[in-house]
Specification:
The chain has a six-stranded mixed beta sheet with strand order 2-1-3-5-6-4, sandwiched between helices. Strands 9-8-7-10-11-12 form a six-stranded parallel beta sheet, with helices on both faces. By secondary structure, it is an alpha/beta fold. The two termini are about 20 Å apart. It has ten helices and twelve strands. The radius of gyration is 19 Å and the shape is globular. Bound molecules: NADP nicotinamide-adenine-dinucleotide phosphate. NADP nicotinamide-adenine-dinucleotide phosphate binds next to helix 5 and helix 9.
Length: about 290
């Protein structure tokens, strides 16, 4: 049972809406595991109240917060310090109050990378096909380029958004080799033989009748296929990839590891990964 005291440290997540977040489950499990006198709450913060909510981190002397949709970009303006990744990505998912100052971080990209490492994959020297150019794709693209991949194929429904992201990466990450490719079966089939890792960072896969964004017949044992969608866990893309003999990584790993990195920033403790993964698996199965 959770016991709160006069000294209990408050953490939380700011988003709108926020009801489906799994972050309270993860962080409260970790606090309890370590016997830390801390609690993590979900806060539904409408955009008009964002500034007030951020000021309350200081006023209430909170330990820190996570930030999710739709506030990840908007909060940048109120940070006193930014990590290099947050600066490059242009979005924040973790805030730490340290010495009365708000420090902003983005742990999504590192979370994705750790999930791949856990699956035994080192991205250095790999060619990666990334589907999507939204917030999550941007975090992943920056981290991949910082981690020494050989080449990035970038595909997105709205081509201009992929082109903007590619131009940004080429300007800001030395040696980034990026090609924007059209999101279509024939186009992607042409690039898959040269690809080591495929990443779906779009929201496609969440609904049963979502289209398949790439041709499953062009996938094979040379590919590692990652989906960052975690509801459902076994997306149509991952099922198709497994049928073709490809290795797969589901979206739970990124969720787990972005939380782990935030927890390390706040508490200097490592997430109890196995315990939290088990809790997450129960939650997404519900
Ligand atoms: P976002 O910024 O809204 O971006 C959505 C992306 O999906 C864009 O690239 C968008 O393309 C694409 N898209 C949407 N509908 C599409 C369609 N019908 N056909 C083709 N492409 C379509 O969202 P986000 O924050 O990047 O999140 C993307 C997904 O990742 C969500 O499902 C989210 O739950 C998941 N996610 C998972 C984790 C994790 O820890 N596992 C972390 C963050 C996000 P356009 O640019 O053309 O609109």
């Amino acid at each position: 049972m959770l016991l709160l005291h006069g000294q209990t440290m408050l953490y939380g997540i700011f988003g709108y809406p926020i009801g489906h977040s799994l972050s309270p489950l993860m962080h409260n499990t970790a606090f309890t595991h370590y016997g830390l006198d801390a609690v993590y709450l979900p806060f539904a913060v409408p955009p008009a109240h964002l500034e007030m909510a951020l000021k309350s981190i200081v006023a209430l002397h909170m330990g820190g917060v996570n930030v999710t949709i739709p506030h990840k970009q908007a909060v940048m303006a109120w940070m006193d310090e930014l990590s290099p990744e947050a600066h490059l990505i242009g979005a924040i998912n973790t805030i730490h109050l340290r010495d009365g100052r708000l420090h902003g971080y983005n742990t999504d990209g590192i979370g994705f990378l750790r999930a791949l490492e856990e699956a035994g994959s080192d991205v250095a020297g790999c060619t990666v096909m990334l589907l999507g150019a939204g917030g999550a794709a941007r975090a992943i693209a920056v981290q991949l380029c910082l981690s020494g991949i050989r080449r990035l194929y970038l595909a997105n429904r709205t081509l201009a958004r992929a082109e903007d992201l590619a131009a940004f990466l080429q300007q800001n990450v030395p040696h980034a080799d990026i090609s924007v490719v059209t999101l279509g079966e024939a186009s992607l089939a042409a690039y898959l033989p040269d690809t080591d890792i495929v990443v779906n960072a779009t929201s496609i896969g969440m609904h049963p009748h979502d289209p398949m964004l790439l041709p499953p017949y062009a996938l094979g044992p040379r590919h590692l296929v990652c989906d960052i969608v975690y509801r459902p866990l076994h997306t149509p893309l991952l099922r198709a990839a497994q049928r073709q003999g490809a290795r797969t990584v589901d979206g739970l790993g990124m969720l787990l590891h972005q939380g782990a990195k935030a927890f390390e920033i706040w508490t200097e403790h490592a997430f109890p990964l196995a315990l939290i993964r088990a809790r997450l698996l129960e939650a997404v199965a519900e």
